[in-house]
């Protein structure tokens, strides 16, 4: 990240924090992160290094939220980011995944873009399944918090919006 980008991000965080504490939220970027991965066949699992990047990005997102005064959203966002990035890594076959977290009005917006068409749809799993519950979990979590989620750009982007709570933001 360049000095100019860091300064712009700090200004956006200060605007987001000021809005979270003093009244209406202001628009601003909290995080823009790219993950470059090796081209692979969809059936092949990602490398351990690529999979570990998701945890790193999740921790960066949590730190940025705290820095921007949005501490109350950290736990939910960490789960959402982890699930959406994992889905993009496992199912898209892309070489670049982007994560954008922004404040838009009274909402925190999260978007994961993998550039590959195909809509994210929650699976119906049985009790013994070891995976496949991520989107179900996200769906419930987001709806319980007054948000929404979906896909756009032909499925190339999976996004969600969470209401920024008035209390506990700092």
Automatic annotation (TrEMBL):
Domain named Histidine kinase/HSP90-like ATPase: residues: 52-143
InterPro entries given in the database record: Anti-sigma-factor_SerPK, HATPase_C_sf, HATPase_dom
GO molecular function, one term: ATP binding
CDD domains: HATPase_RsbW-like
Tagged with keyword ATP-binding: yes
Pfam families: HATPase_c_2
Keyword terms: ATP-binding, Kinase, Nucleotide-binding, Serine/threonine-protein kinase, Transferase
Source organism, top-level taxon: Bacteria
Protein name as it appears in the record: ATP-binding protein
Protein source organism: Streptomyces coerulescens
């Amino acid at each position: 990240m360049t000095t100019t980008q860091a300064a712009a991000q700090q200004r956006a965080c200060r605007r987001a924090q000021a809005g979270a504490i003093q009244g209406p939220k202001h628009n601003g970027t909290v995080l823009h992160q790219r993950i470059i991965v090796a081209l692979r066949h969809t059936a092949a699992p990602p490398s351990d290094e690529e999979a570990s990047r998701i945890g790193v990005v999740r921790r960066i997102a949590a730190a940025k939220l705290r820095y921007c005064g949005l501490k109350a959203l950290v736990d939910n966002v960490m789960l959402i980011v982890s699930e959406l990035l994992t889905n993009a890594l496992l199912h898209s076959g892309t070489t670049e995944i982007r994560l954008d977290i922004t404040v838009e009005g009274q909402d925190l917006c999260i978007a994961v873009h993998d550039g590959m068409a195909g809509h994210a749809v929650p699976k119906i799993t049985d009790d013994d399944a070891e995976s496949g519950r991520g989107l179900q979990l996200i769906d419930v979590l987001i709806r319980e918090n007054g948000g929404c989620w979906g896909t756009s750009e032909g499925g190339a982007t999976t996004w969600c919006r969470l209401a920024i709570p008035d209390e506990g933001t700092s």
